[in-house]
Amino acid sequence: MTDIQWYPGHMTKAKRMMQEDIKLIDIVVELVDARTPLSSKNPDIDQLAQNKYRLIILNKNDLADPSVTSKWEAYYKEKGFFVACMDARKNTGMKAITDMIQEACKEKIERDRKRGIINRPIRAMIVGIPNVGKSTFINSYAKKACTKVGNKPGVTKGKQWIRIGKNVELLDTPGILWPKFEDQNVGLRLAYIGSINDNIIIKSEMAISFIEFLKNNYCNALKDRYNIECDKECHEILADIAIVRKCLLKGNEPDLDKAANLLFDDYRSGKLGRISLETP
Asked: What CA–CA distance (Å, rounded) separates 260 from 101?
């Protein structure tokens, strides 16, 4: 497969903006995709958020393999992060987030109290790569549509503060990737979950590598969804998906690109079942 790299110009500007804004912030809340919690975690954020309290939210956990998610939760807690698991679209577990932000910042709240500063809201910066669900999370958290939500990577471009109750102020930031994926598997995983612009990728090539992963780790997903056995070559399985789902060209030839689109739509919407792409 060709190398996957995607770093549009607005991301450079967004990163500079975050470097300026970090001075105003008490805690960095980073959303990662629960299906790929390491690959969807921007390594630049660790550098940016040095000396800040940290909360990691494993979002879209309803799409991830629960047994793998619990390992990731333990992994990040061991590294000193506060960790929450949730599905922001279902609007559940939001109170727990406020409690966790308060808990993470309790030393700071105590320091403020000693200096006579009472009830100053905690300032939290929300960060994450494109398409991890930041805008959906903020809208659920604020209980109103206060950010523009889109399912295309890179919709949020500006900077905005959002007040959550009396205790928290959120600063939303645009989704940014990092300039170069050292490990191409990281680029692939991000492409599978839709965090990289689909237009720069040859979908049928990507589908073949994804089928290889499913064959080795979640063979039943192919069987249950398409009634296809795993004992064939990956390109044959993709052709079979095309035939089963009537993705056909003239002369009844399988339309592999269309089948690849269908496969990724099924994966991203959870129709293939709860599938994690990496383990700690």
From this structure: 41
Cα 30 from Cα 67, distance rounded (Å): 22
DSSP 73-98: HHHHHHTT-EEEE--GGGT-SHHHHH
DSSP states of 259-270 as a string?
HHHHHHHHHHTT
Phi, psi of 46 (to 5 degrees): -60, -40
Euclidean distance between CA atoms 32 and 36, whole angstroms: 8
Closest CA to 123 of 188, 52, 72, 40: 52
Q: What's the one-letter identity of residue 9? A: G
- The kind and range of the H/E element at 256 are helix 256-268
Q: How far apart are CA 56 and CA 72, in angstroms?
A: 11
Which residues partner with 160 through β-bridges? 172
pTM of the model: 0.84
Residues 205-225: tens digit of each pLDDT: 999 999 999 999 999 999 999
DSSP code of residue 11: H
Is-contact 186 10, C-beta < 8 A?
no
pLDDT of res. 241: 95
Q: Smallest Cα–Cα separation from 138: which of 109, 169, 114, 112?
A: 169
Q: Which residues contact 195 (CB under 8 A, 6 or more apart)?
A: 33, 40, 129, 130, 131, 132, 153, 175, 177
Q: How far apart, in Å, are the Cα atoms of 201 and each of 151, 175, 193, 225, 276? A: 17, 19, 13, 24, 21
Query: Which spans in 79-180 are helix H?
Result: 94-104, 106-114, 134-142
Instruction: State pLDDT tens for residues 121-162.
Output: 899 988 888 888 888 888 888 875 455 444 545 444 455 678
Which pLDDT band holds residue 14 (cuts at 50, 70, 90)? low
